[in-house]
Specification:
By secondary structure, the chain is of the alpha+beta class. It folds into two domains: 244 residues, Bira Bifunctional Protein, Domain 2 (BirA Bifunctional Protein, domain 2, 2-Layer Sandwich), CATH 3.30.930.10; 59 residues. 36% of the residues lie in helices and 23% in strands. It has 14 helices and 16 strands. A nine-stranded mixed β-sheet has the order 1-5-6-12-11-10-7-9-8, sandwiched between helices. Strand 15 and strand 16 form a beta hairpin. Helix 6 runs antiparallel to helix 12. It is elongated, with a radius of gyration of 26 Å.
Length: 383
């Protein structure tokens, strides 16, 4: 095998793609800042017991692990930045007020999480801490939809779920409480035969409710159907009320409901959402409430947020046209250097051509040139 081949599902990002990714990153971070979100930069690696605190088995399986030669302890390369940001809020910032944080950086996965997915996503996201009300969920939902709009996606499907529905059903049955992980897995895969088998020992009300959940997906009328077929438990009613409010705040997005879409359930605690765009089978962004993650860091804080993979998103966008630039000769003339510096300071791209390579401009469209006339360096348009 040639020594320059990369591992499976790992790839270089070439100039045109890298430019799209970077422009998206800048635009989204500026959008987050306009809402008052502060940028943080967690480390790429940290001790494993801290990195996986509050996370579930799925994240553990996705995390690369190695031994730190300085301490002898096991460290992990982050597979997700959400718990890291929760640690920063709970342990380092330690504020009592509402805190809004955002982030952008590479994460690594031991296995790809979707068809043709990279194992090195560039994750960007935003989290809000300190407010348990639905207003925070609505802001995060709005921010996620706005981020896709910044990227040029005007056709978006918002898929809503609420982990409180399932948890309320399980809490009402002692036999079900010890099988939560298995139940969530079966619901997530909509394995109705598996659910029938595992719920045979449950009470009739619990069994019927769990068997109904895989069929409660579709348009927003699912909420009404759920009220009709699920038991009248307080946790279910409040969860469905929250989903109804989030539907009203979805703007122009097409909204669907799937009460069995429980990805990330292991640390999610409330409303959850996934965003889909044309030409991509996987969700392009996911978010939701996770109020209990901070407990492991010694400080429970209400929390909700979302994240997406910029590299995956950029691949869906058309190739950008070549950027307009000014071609300038290479030289030692001080006036030329001053003029080039002035143009660059004004935001222009000025490319000084090296001798013998005057026409080699692969990435840029040099539609103007800098020429010397009457002892002045002036810009002329190229035909």
């Amino acid at each position: 095998m040639p020594n320059w081949l990369l591992p499976e599902n790992i790839a270089d990002v070439l100039p045109s793609e890298a430019r799209k990714v970077e422009e998206l990153r800048r635009a989204m971070l500026d959008g987050f800042r306009s809402y008052g979100y502060e940028l943080v930069q967690p480390p790429l690696l940290e001790y494993l017991d801290s990195l996986l605190t509050g996370a579930g088995q799925d994240l553990d399986l996705r995390t690369f692990k190695l031994i730190d030669q300085l301490s002898g302890r096991t460290i992990g390369l982050r597979a997700d930045m959400t718990t890291q940001v929760a640690r920063i809020d709970a342990h380092l910032l330690n504020r009592n007020s509402v805190t809004r944080l955002c982030y952008a950086g590479s994460v690594l996965h031991t296995r790809p999480i979707g068809l043709h997915a990279t194992r090195e996503p560039l994750q960007i996201g935003a989290e809000i801490y300190g407010h348990a009300g639905l207003e925070a969920d609505a802001e995060i939902q709005q921010l996620a939809l706005g981020s896709l709009a910044l990227a040029g996606f005007d056709t978006v499907r918002l898929d809503l779920c609420h982990v409180g529905v399932v948890r309320a059903i399980i809490r009402a049955d002692a036999a079900a409480q010890g099988l939560e992980a298995e139940l969530f897995g079966l619901l997530r895969s909509k394995d109705v035969p598996g659910l029938r088998a595992i719920t045979a020992q449950f009470g009739a009300v619990t069994r019927d409710a769990l068997l109904a959940l895989p069929h409660l997906y579709g348009e927003v009328d699912v909420i009404g159907r759920a009220r009709a077929v699920l038991p009248s438990l307080e946790g279910i009613s409040s969860a469905l009320d929250a989903l109804e409010q989030l539907v009203k705040l979805a703007g122009n997005a097409r909204v669907t409901i799937d009460l069995a879409d429980l990805r990330g359930y292991q640390y999610e605690s409330g409303a959850m959402f996934a965003l889909y765009v044309p030409n991509l089978p996987n969700a392009v962004a996911r978010g939701g409430r996770y109020d209990h993650v901070g407990e492991a860091f010694g400080r429970a804080r209400p929390a909700t947020g979302f994240s997406l993979d910029l590299r995956e998103l950029a691949r869906l966008l058309p190739l950008a046209p070549r950027t307009s630039a000014i071609r300038a000769p290479w030289g030692t003339d001080a006036a030329l250097h001053r003029r080039v510096a002035q143009l660059r300071a004004a935001g222009e791209i000025v490319i000084q051509t090296l001798p013998g390579h005057e026409d080699e401009m692969d990435e840029f469209d040099c539609d103007r040139t800098l020429v010397l006339e009457n002892d002045h360096w002036i810009i002329k348009n190229l035909g």
